[in-house]
Amino acid sequence: MTQNFDYKKFAEDIKQNAENLLPDEIKDKEYIINSVYNFTLTSAEALSNDSDLMLDEEQIIFISRNVAKYIFEKAKDLELSYSFDKEKKDIILQNVAYIVFEIAREHILSGRKNRYKFDDPDNQVNKTYLKAIDDILNPKEYYLDSDFEIDLDEYSQKLKGITNAINANPDCIENYEERVDLCETICSFIEEENAVEYRKLLIEDYQKLIELKPEKSSDWYYFLYKSYYHLGNNDEAYLSLTKSINLTKDTEEKSAYIEEFRAVFEKISNYNND
Questions:
Q1: What is the pLDDT at residue 267?
Q2: Phi/psi of residue 2, each to 5°?
């Protein structure tokens, strides 16, 4: 929980910036400004008050600023290109805010500052935005619970190709890193019960990366801990995070891992007395 972060002032500053950037041809400027403010405030407040995530101010700003950016862009586009009423526009923007929030949050939680590429998630946001519009323009009798599924067929084909490359060259680090990124992406957008096979593959890949690139072992052990933890293997998760902490040289990063260790394993009764 980030108690000293003034998320209300942050949202007000974002709101002011949005107001200054609006072009003259926008008629309902108030709707866009209020949308940016409300989604930014909701995001920043939720993250600030989440004691499980333990995000710092910079991380909260990163996620919330990305939410604000895409809400501004899509709210502006809705005003210029469509004649939806406020309720329909709100639904569309809620979908946009959700997907941006999840992508940015997952990037932060992954901790992969160097290897994990956080490109502006234009493709996923645009797909979500256009699908929400299509659902309104072409209402269907039945809806799936999730509007944010990735194209698993496409990703499965990519995964198959990478796996073939790994089988052909089992010591190529880049192939393992590419498969890790792909599996992590898949796991971010599917239900956890459907992610087991990808989590198991991640474990294999992180173990191989520890062998092939030992100088990065502190990172690989951290991601290995995450994979074991998602699968409910607390013993291996405990050991992997411990190894990551012991191998981490950066004092700030080590402190963050120690805090995460305490927060996670205090919830697991087997380790309460360790």
A1: 63
A2: -100, 95
| Rounded mean pLDDT, 138-143 | 55
Q: How many residues does the chain have?
A: 274
HSE toward the beta carbon, residue 35, CA cutoff 13 A: 29
In angstroms, how far is the first alpha carbon of the chain from the final one?
24
What does the angle CA 133 – CA 136 – CA 138 come to, to the nearest 5 degrees? Answer: 100
How many whole angstroms separate alpha carbon 84 and alpha carbon 136? 9
Residue 202 pLDDT greater than 60, yes or no: yes
> 90-109 pLDDT, tens per residue?
999 999 999 988 888 877 77
Cα 82 to Cα 91: distance, rounded to the nearest angstrom: 14
Q: Name the nearest CA neighbour of 227 among 195, 254, 191.
A: 195
Alpha-carbon distance values, 176 to 109, 202, 203 (Å): 20, 9, 11
Q: CA 11 from chain center: how many Å?
A: 21
Token reading at 104: 């940015």
- The verdict on pTM exceeding 0.70 is no
Q: Which two tokens stand for residue 274?
A: 């360790």
- Rg from Cα positions in the chain: 21
Measure the CA–CA gap between 59 and 104, rounded to whole angstroms: 9
User: Residue 253 has which token pair?
Assistant: 């990063």
Residue 127: pLDDT band with limits 50, 70, 90: confident
C-alpha torsion 42→48→54→55, nearest 10: 80
Average confidence (pLDDT) over 200-205: 94
